[in-house]
């Protein structure tokens, strides 16, 4: 099979940012592996091909060259492959297992949700994206990691400061300088917490990484700092987006919203279906380690690939009526957390946080509805999120 790149050549960044799903449909049908000059990547859009790219690290490595991730954050698990990545996963996974997450957050998550809802409940309307989902996401992760003594506004600011460095593929020193400054401030703050934890271990992820021994050795300080920076960058905003997207999806469908409101065991299914239908992380970036054929297309060694998770999650070859949001769908696992060796470390924590946060909002905000005069706008393709979630309720 020979496939051209006619569709890929016409795609604009603007259309991807605005709404990538119609473009993904065209690509899946006509050019499932397509070089898209607008983004400088080979986009892979069919489910089975995305699965193959994410589960064959010897051929499709996450340790890309150059790695803006490693340069900006320091060495971390998403910028490497092989035994060292597996060793870091073996150390970092235990504190993110369900029982450990519940034990660490059981007092904190409901208490914070209660405080935030107390602050808005009498008002009868609010932007739940800014006033509820965002602080729930940022403050819960800082608490999980053990960074709750650092002002969370600073953590957010430093994290945002890293972004230009992550997008600095051309290695421009002017673009890199502010990112390095933000990374320096964040790394110093993490270092101070580590100094304290060396003397006073606690139940946080940072404390676990500092004291846990695996295969006869411990993580170095640099490894802890680099990987904590990755966890912040990967986890500060995604649970926020999942919370807001789930509410938006439900509130846009009165019948399914009413079902979930009346039967809270369905919150779990609503979060999962939102992750499939509108997951906030669009792509996983990989690089071909050797010449390889994928869906009839020849890729050279070094080809940079965007495995489009959100397209795989709407592929009609895999899902029935894929564009329909259906909380009763029973078709197995989606790819919103990727697959293989880099499957999201914080998946269970993110899900748990979203479920509890949503459940408590439904308890406290009766008659919840979107405000048509302040509509929700989604944008982005690598990361896709709403800009607000204005709702009203009966105070
Ligand atoms: C709940 C919403 C979240 C979504 C949709 C999400 C999505 C993802 C995806 C798609 C990947 C794989 C990227 C790839 O294969 O290239 C990933 C990796 C990762 N995520 Fe998440 N994430 C979420 C929450 C979190 C949270 C709360 C944390 C906090 C610890 C986190 C930490 C990480 C880390 C450390 C990795 C890299 C794992 C590795 O390389 O082995 N994520 N995430």
Strand order of the largest sheet: 1-2-8-5-3
Instruction: Classify the beta-strand content into a percent band.
Output: 5-15%
Q: The CATH topology is what?
A: Cytochrome p450
Enumerate how many helices there are, as a single number. Answer: 18
Uncertain ranges? none
Principal-axis shape: globular
* CATH top level assignment: Mainly Alpha
What is the makeup of the main sheet?
5 strands, mixed
Order of helices and strands: HHHEEHEHHHHEHHHHHHHHEEEEHHEEEE
Radius of gyration: 21 Å
Give the name of the CATH superfamily. Answer: Cytochrome P450
Mean pLDDT: 95
Structural class: alpha+beta
Ligands bound here?
Answer: protoporphyrin IX containing FE
In total, the number of domains comes to 1
Task: Kindly describe this structure.
The protein has 18 helices and twelve strands. The chain has helices spanning 6-10, 13-18, 21-30, 47-55, 68-73, 83-92, 98-105, 108-120, 128-145, 152-166, 173-199, 205-211, 221-235, 238-251, 254-262, 267-278, 309-312, 347-364; strands at residues 33-36, 41-44, 60-61, 125-127, 283-288, 292-294, 297-299, 304-308, 369-370, 378-379, 385-386, 390-392. The strands form four sheets. It has a five-stranded mixed sheet. Strands 4-12-9 form a three-stranded antiparallel sheet. Bound molecules: protoporphyrin IX containing FE. Protoporphyrin IX containing FE (HEM) is lined by residues 54, 62, 77-78, 89, 141, 230-231, 234-235, 238-239, 242, 279-281, 284, 309, 336-338, 342, 344-346, 349-350.
